[in-house]
Structures are given as C-alpha cells and as structure tokens.
Amino acid sequence: MNNEEKNLRIDVDGEGEVKADNKLTSLTKGKILFYRADYPIKYYNTSEVFRTCFLTFQGIASLPLLDFYNFPGYLVFENDRIAHQLMDICKAADSGTREEILSSRVYTLINDIGILLNSDSLPRSFEKAVSSKPRS
User: Fold this and answer.
1) CA dihedral 46, 72, 120, 12 (to 10 degrees)
2) Full-model pTM
3) What are the pLDDT digits (tens) for 62-78?
4) Which of 28, 31, 54, 81 has the largest CB neighbor count within 10 A?
5) What region, left, alpha or beta, does residue 70 occupy, with left being phi > 0 and alpha being psi -120 to 50 degrees?
C-alpha cells in the first residue's frame, strides 16, 4: 500500500515562482501547481503578498488514478473550472466538511485534471467532461 502524499496549490493572490527540473515557472493568480511530496521543487513569493490555497491528499486509490492519467512529478497549469473546484474544496475543508465528502470531491478533481491533461488521447466520451461548465 502506498500512501504517498500529493499536493495541489492554487495562487490566490500575489506572485511567486516554482523551481523544478532546473526550470523557473511563474505562479500568478489562478495558476495551479500540482506536485508529489517527494518531488524536488521549491516555490516562493516574488511579491510582497503571496497567498495560496493548499490541498494535500493521499490514499490507496489516488496513486493508481495519477498513474492512469500519467501525472508528472509536478505540473503548473491554468484552468478556470479546475481552479473553481480546488477553491471550493479548500473552503469546504476550512469550514469543517466531513472527510468522506472531501475525499470524494478530491478524487473527482484529480479525475477532472487527468481528463484535461489527456483530452487529446482519451476516447471522445471524455470530451463532455472536459468542456462542461461547473455545476451550480
């Protein structure tokens, strides 16, 4: 059983940078950073204000899901729908939402990111999930 931690972070305000694989990538409002806990990265602020929403998750089901979608060790990307989902999960966690509900929402989020990352290679039935609007 592998309970390796994984992390998602979204820049809420300000600017920063992430250094990984000898590359610097800017983090600005709305950018999402995914990384596995054992992946060698450094991130830091480049502006006076730098606030993020940080989500750590683990579990026996998450690793096979990441492997299925070929998640890299780290990834920086932008997507309004995914950002909205991540912010909603962070707010729910802060407000004391039960763990099993948060777990379900995180697995849905990871699945949605995987679909987004692999939209060119997945069967056409996945396209609706990639292009659908967030539920109200």
Assistant:
1) -30
2) 0.80
3) 888 888 888 998 999 99
4) 31
5) left
Confidence of residue 136 (pLDDT cuts 50, 70, 90): very low
Find all residues with CB under 8 Å of 77, minimum gap 6, and list them. 31, 32, 34, 116, 117
Give the dihedral sign, CA 17/55/70/134: negative
